[in-house]
Amino acid sequence: MTRDEIKSKITTAVLELFAVEEEQLTESAKLYEELDIDSIDTIDLLLSLNQGIDQELDFEPEHFRDVETLGDLLDVIEDLLR
Amino acid sequence: MKGEYQTSVDITVPFHDVDSYRVVWHGNYARYFEVARCQLLDELQANYRVMEDLGYFFPVVDMKSRFVRPLIFGQHIVVKASLISWRHKLKIDYRITDRETGELMTRGTTVQVAISPEGDLQFQTPDAFRTAIEARIKST
Asked: Among B116, B120, B123, whose Cβ lies nearest the Cβ of A43?
């Protein structure tokens, strides 16, 4: 899956789950400060993402310690899918 | 109320739970939910002690309540707790009904997540926790 495809899956999941506008979903957008997506929300986001990509990715806390932006999240998912 | 496992507790509303409007103060409903939740988790053999022995805390991170009808002092109520999900988050739904009439008084939901002693949010509940719950559900 390409980075653009992953980004599209994340965008779909975020738009379904949270009250944000698509134009806010840039790679530099900060999940907590700008998108109001907190750590609890990320569980729902990752579950939705698993359904979107039709895979059961094994998310561990250490994968997300340094995730601040949508781009960081994209990096993690891309790594997990390799 | 749908759920993989359900239990219920009987409570008689005590005098100290009502406010100056003579109805149960809204903050006290969390305690009624908790009584039912603890019994549910005891029956599932996955209570707070078990969770802590596994090395995890399970704080409530989200709670919703709908106060359909007010509860009053001395009212006999049934608090039903129903397990909705447990693999990633522990989600429990609640219904409070009047014991005599069966009338729905309150609906609610709580969500708990697993946190390691280091404070890390877990994206799945611990394996042993899931296994215990699923074994219990299968045996009922």
From this structure: B123
How many structural domains comprise chain B? Answer: 1
Question: CA of B114, closest CA in chain A: separation in Å?
Answer: 10
Q: What is the ipTM of this complex?
A: 0.77
Which range marks the domain in which residue A29 is found?
A: 3-81
Q: What is the pLDDT of residues B49-76, one digit of tens each?
A: 999 998 999 999 999 999 999 999 999 9
Domain that holds residue B129: 5-139
What is the C-alpha separation between A14 and A30, in angstroms, rounded?
13
* CATH number of the domain where residue B90 is located: 3.10.129.10
Full-model pTM: 0.88
User: Given an 8 Å threshold on Cβ–Cβ distance, is A61 in contact with B89?
Assistant: no
Nearest CA in chain A to B113: A40
CATH of the domain at A74: 1.10.1200.10
Number of structural domains in chain A: 1
Rounded to an integer, what distance in angstroms lies between the CA atom of residue B33 and that of residue B36?
A: 5
List alpha helices for chain A, DSSP H. 3-17, 39-53, 70-81
The closest CB to that of A39, out of B62, B88, B121, belongs to B121
Q: Which of A40, A59, A62 is opposite residue B61, by nearest beta carbon?
A: A40
User: Shortest CA distance to A12 belongs to which of A45, A55, A56?
Assistant: A45
Q: Do B121 and A61 touch (CB under 8 A)?
A: yes
